[in-house]
């Protein structure tokens, strides 16, 4: 059995520790890990001790925390294996004796292990140790180092000091080791540390659930169980969610067939067209990519995802750096972080290549032999709607063509309401008319699978209405069918909320919970607004007052001015009061906003899904304010320009307290788009009003510190 290492934190020296967990010898010749045939149930006997000078200590202070982790982790591991028992895993009583061999540790390290361990970060390692002992595997498992606290459902909670723990694992693990930690901590891992892990021959495994690491990284098939919420809400489906992704199986097969045909034509690219909320991204991440990994076994498959709007800088050089950094994290491609010469240099001198052209040569030269690479371009319409210059778009299209020519599979997702822009862009040369795939609406049978199949894996049951006796799953299905386009995100969100409100004892999802979640509007459309307003109800009046200022920064007009779209906002220096920050954090915690770090390490936020634009009353009010500001801005700009042209006469300044307040607030929202002339115009108006004792600076300008919105 390969080794297993606890990843711990040394609070005294502020460094990570990797401590090996070993089998402990026991009396009467019993093995340290035994799986004795017996009745099904929670028959678990797990213990952990500390070995020192040949004796096993059980009363060291740290052992209390480790014992709690051993019990909780083992219980969840046993339950997971029992859920799969009908097939092949476990119907046994379990006995396991673990120890930390203090004789192998230095005196100072031993003292820390004896006295400093606290918390539940050892849960995950104990769960994995029990599973790896219970289920034989050929070839053998990798050496594993792990940190993470498990919830009663088997999900991973975030823990502290993960980067330092990974560094400790690198010093302890043999080559080929697996380092497992919670997915919520993954953003803390720097590109440099990721490259160090890859270069050392190890793998990182950021996970959400215990069953995920067991199936995906240990190679133990898990097909009958799902630990935790089987519905994604507004969170994206990724490859690891393939087991709970239903309803689009036929589309995944059709896309695979079309990609293979396109490859035979020398143009292995396809663009998936569909309405907003139709499930394009989910189909690609959780349907198509896992399908390819299951069937295209003759060649190793690598995949990566890139989204245009995640870039704050829009020039070609920034695009190339973003893609290069993402690709360099893949196996065998860590050399992309520094430009390497290619074996067969292009005919043009290297210095004449554009940043994307140079990246294409570097990538093709370093792609591992025989590997098939699938590059997913998510929400590709953002390339045409997010401020990228025509020259950058043209260079990007040429970049895609070059990748296709060299056998790289390109899969894009694209909103169908921007199809005209696609036809008028260089992207049409990449995919052509024959390289598109229209994603159709789901029929009732597929919708029912989306509702029922994840529930089956999570051992849930939809209740019947006490009066009509209709099953709740059918009610939800019919509401989506009747609602038409854009209902899928609302369905997934409502299902996720229903899971949270389930009867834990019976696993039943009831009509009572469904009606409560829907609020006054009722049904799927009422659920998201009700949820958002419940979050606002926890805010103070001052926090709620900042909501319009926050929301209008998260929307913009499309280039043709006909649609309101969501956009990302950089929070650094923009929302500077405690009320802004508290409101934003509550919306993030409530899954109304999502946040991540940009390339500079700054926090950016955006609405978690576009359906909020039309299904939340506060958002509708913010859109109305946004459109009013745009109209007023035109009038304001005209007045300022007229004042400047006429020689800045006093009679053309803004008059009246109310008009000045409106103009002043308008300048607050306009932000960096306010010209010098406009600034002078409003400042001179304020000075004149003060001289006449008409005006006191508006509180919202004087005290909020809100940095205003800019318009595209």
Strand content: 15-25%
Instruction: Report the CATH C-level class of the largest domain.
Output: Alpha Beta
Major sheet summary line: 9 strands, mixed
Number of domain modules: 5
Tell me the CATH topology of the largest domain.
Ribosomal Protein S5, domain 2
Give the overall average pLDDT.
82
Q: What is the approximate shape?
A: globular
SS class: alpha/beta
Can you walk through the features of this model?
By secondary structure, the protein is an alpha/beta fold. It has five domains: 4-216, 2-Layer Sandwich (Ribosomal Protein S5, domain 2); 248-438, P-loop containing nucleotide triphosphate hydrolases (Rossmann fold), CATH 3.40.50.300; 444-534, no CATH class; 543-618, Arc Repressor Mutant, subunit A, CATH 1.10.10; 622-703, no CATH class. It is built from 27 helices and 23 strands. The strands form six sheets. Strands 1, 2, 3, 4, 5, 6, 7, 10 and 11 form a nine-stranded mixed sheet that branches. Strand 8 (149-150) and strand 9 form a beta hairpin. Helix 18 (511-518) crosses helix 19 (523-537) and helix 24 crosses helix 26 (676-691). It is globular and about 95 Å long.
